């Protein structure tokens, strides 16, 4: 495999609105990120993926872009962004941007022109029809996917909110616009791109095809050729699909993307026979283990994996995969289980300090457009989810769980700012879950993350973690995740108890030494009684 500069790097995802509010207006900003670069450097991460920071009315918190080449004034100025890029670079940290190509904002100049008349050159930038086509296909955020425009006597298509009209990729001008936007940022020194819902840019609306249309991969290849492929950057696609879809995007010879996120584990708690995340079901860790193994084996030698358990659209990983009774232990176990696999680790802001889901008192505490759309559809419309069940589902799965302000310390507004009411509630647990306390406690989740990152980068073991083969062991065991990484006669084994119970276990190999552990135990025999969520990384003889 051809070696790349980003192969051994950790990506850290920042949701700028919630990270750090420097000017104390209640909204996180770029200067806030700059002020925390030392914290991030100290943690050991190398690439910062920033969710969209472009001009936006913020209906979907930036995933509704009104100008692809300008900075959202809520977050700062272009000078601030240039400063962030250069200050980060001084610490050998690089910026990854979020490219939303599938749709833009209804406040974008293109859309404002488009609705002026059918002859307007921008009209064909969007998907207009005289009647809704396949009206049974609903918007991802609730309600219809077609919105009527009276002045035109036409409807336009929007996969997400009605303020997020889909762009018409059948119009070659759209490819050009997106290419120009990417090239603009490449020249500013951006070193990575995360592509939002990239599987949707091949849609064929009249044929009822929304994801993975026949022209999808040709379009991604064209974007590669005309824009980011000319720069030495790291790319990752948000592509909801299966293993074969992942291969199609990531086989190096196809010149598309370096890796994609797979959502089979994180969405396995959604009951898709009913209303998805709003009708959640319990986690099945064996299923998750099998899925992780499937992607490791499927992409292993051929392409590359993205290793993640959280992002800005998901509930927190302790709530999903771990246990509140074993907060610290399970947080560390989850990290150990996932980040020693082969691929690029992604850490979502707050994950490293064990931030948790938030219990909101009322529906109005939620900011997310998705929550309010779903409430209208299922609680008020279909009436097949009760208000109480809906609130309970939101506690488990609502995207706002990941978007509460970062908890920096046990002081006013958790240190997010100096006291102005933040745009979204702060989790009241900041009194005991916060970065400052975590830094001080040698057994904290944060210090474990630091140790884990150091270990994965340690020159003695790095090649094994980065390029070593992955082999799952004891695969039928439904409680334990055991896997081995091997490179040039070095073998490292990762053993994780995924359960909240004690499990006696006989280690099936000869131990040289323990490289990382989340319990203060000595391991001198091969017969061990694993504690709940115990995790151990062994160097093998
Ligand atoms: O998400 C796409 C997506 O399909 C889901 O993750 C979505 O968040 C929803 O929860 C499905 O139920 C991406 C972004 O990550 C998300 O934040 C945006 O809202 C969305 O695209 C639209 O740009
Ligand atoms: Ca601010």
Sequence-ordered SSE layout with sheet pairings:
Blueprint lengths: L10 E4 L1 H4 L10 H6 L1 H7 L3 E4 L3 E2 L11 E5 L6 H13 L3 E6 L9 H6 L13 E2 L16 E4 L4 E4 L14 H16 L4 E4 L20 H11 L7 E5 L4 H8 L8 E3 L8 E2 L4 E5 L4 H15 L6 E2 L9 H5 L5 H13 L4 E5 L20 H13 L5 H11 L37 H6 L4 H13 L4 H6 L1 E5 L6 E8 L2 E8 L5 E4 L4 E7 L9 E4 L4 E6 L1
Parallel strand pairs: 1-2, 1-15, 2-5, 5-9, 9-10, 10-11, 14-15
Antiparallel strand pairs: 3-4, 6-8, 7-8, 12-13, 16-17, 17-18, 18-22, 19-21, 20-22
Helix pairs in contact: 11-15
The structure holds 1-O-alpha-D-glucopyranosyl-D-fructose (TEU) and calcium ion.
Summarize this entry quickly.
The chain is of the alpha/beta class.
Structure characterization notes:
The chain is α/β, with parallel strands linked by helices and 541 residues long. The protein folds into three domains: 11-104 and 172-445, TIM Barrel; 109-157, Oligo-1,6-glucosidase, domain 2 (Alpha-Beta Complex), CATH 3.90.400.10; 466-540, Immunoglobulin-like (Sandwich). It is 28% helix and 18% strand. The chain has helices at 16-19, 30-35, 37-43, 78-90, 109-114, 172-187, 216-226, 243-250, 285-299, 317-321, 327-339, 369-381, 387-397, 435-440, 445-457, 462-467, and strands spanning 11-14, 47-50, 54-55, 67-71, 94-99, 128-129, 146-149, 154-157, 192-195, 234-238, 259-261, 270-271, 276-280, 306-307, 344-348, 469-473, 480-487, 490-497, 503-506, 511-517, 527-530, 535-540. Helix 11 packs parallel to helix 15 (445-457). The longest helix is centred in the first third of the chain and has 16 residues, at 172-187. It starts with 10 loop residues before the first strand and ends with a strand. Bound molecules: 1-O-alpha-D-glucopyranosyl-D-fructose and calcium ion.
